[in-house]
Amino acid sequence: MAMSGGKDDGSPMMEMNTTPLIDVMLVLLIMFIITIPPITHAVEIDLPVSQPEETPPPPVDPVINKIIILPTNEIQWNGTPVSLDQMNQYLLQTKSMSPEPELQFQPAPNATYDIVDKALAIVKGSGITKFGFVGNEQYRVFGKAARPGN
Q1: What distance in Å separates the CA atoms of residue 17 and residue 1, rounded to the nearest whole number?
Q2: Residues 6+ apart with CB under 8 A from 88
Q3: Tens-digit pLDDT profile for residues 17-51
Q4: Residues sharing a CB contact under 8 Å with residue 1, sequence separation 6 or more, in sequence order
């Protein structure tokens, strides 16, 4: 404990020593914090239950959409088989969105040129501006693609 003395002449000390007071206050504060009961009440919330059979997800994603042409000449929009007319409708929907979502195009190396050409013509006719080819690493080796049945 810090002590402060007065003059050497025996006069009384004029300052109060506050260190013991602060120590006692800190001990009391810690005891009160420890003895506070924990919060035990809970709030009941009813969360919605998803029902995937009733509401299918929208076919047009607002960020990235992907057109895949399989070797069987099947066109897929985000993994769902579509026709050329349906693909055109989805492209018109994406064109009207703000901001316009990105469109990725991935034809299989074994897909016929005719179906890929038709799909690209529809994409060009729709006026999509954010367009890109993906999966080009499969064409690293230049040569004739193997057709099914050959």
Answers
A1: 8
A2: 122, 125, 126
A3: 888 999 999 999 999 888 887 777 777 888 888 76
A4: 17, 19, 20
Sign of CA dihedral 56, 60, 65, 69: positive
Amino acid at position 113, single letter: Y
CA angle 83/89/92 to nearest 5° reads 140
pLDDT, tens digit, 9 for 90 and up, residues 74-105 = 999 988 899 999 999 999 888 888 888 999 99
Beta bridge partners of 65: 103
Q: Which residues pair with 66 in a beta bridge?
A: 104
Give, as one character, the DSSP assignment of residue 59. S
pTM for the model stands at 0.55
Q: Within its chain, how far is the Cα of 118 from the centroid?
A: 33
The answer to whether residues 105 and 67 touch, using CB atoms and an 8 Å cutoff, is yes
The whole-angstrom separation of Cα 137 and Cα 51 is: 39
